[in-house]
Amino acid sequence: MNDHNILQNALTIPGLEQVYDQLATAIDAVGPERTELFLVKLALMNANALADPAVFQSHIDAALKDI
């Protein structure tokens, strides 16, 4: 799958800002001792919603860049 297909349903900048704020609020709510568990659980739920392991892998690859 190419990047164009991955991004065709991309969020707008305001949408991304809203998601960022929601994620930050949730991370603060669970606390540092449960952040990793929360993020893994969230990632698996989103992978299930994507229903495409190849797209999920491309998201992992993109997230790993420049870390």
Question: Can you offer a commentary on this structure?
Answer:
With 67 residues, the protein is mostly helical. The chain has a domain at 31-67. It has helices at residues 3-7, 13-30, 35-50, 53-64. The longest helix has 18 residues, at 13-30. The model has no long low-confidence stretch (mean pLDDT 91).
Tell me the layout of helices and strands:
Blueprint: H1 3-7, H2 13-30, H3 35-50, H4 53-64
Please describe the structure with a list of short key phrases separated by commas or semicolons.
67 residues, 4 helices, DUF2783 domain-containing protein, mainly alpha, single chain
Q: Name the helicity range.
A: over 70%
> Would you identify the regions where 5 or more consecutive residues have pLDDT less than 50?
none
Nearest-angstrom radius of gyration?
A: 13 Å
Provide a count of the helices.
Answer: 4
* Structural shape: globular
Proportion of residues in β-strands: under 5%
Largest sheet: none
Q: Tally of extended strands?
A: 0
Q: Care to give the gist of this entry?
A:
With 67 residues, the protein is mainly α.
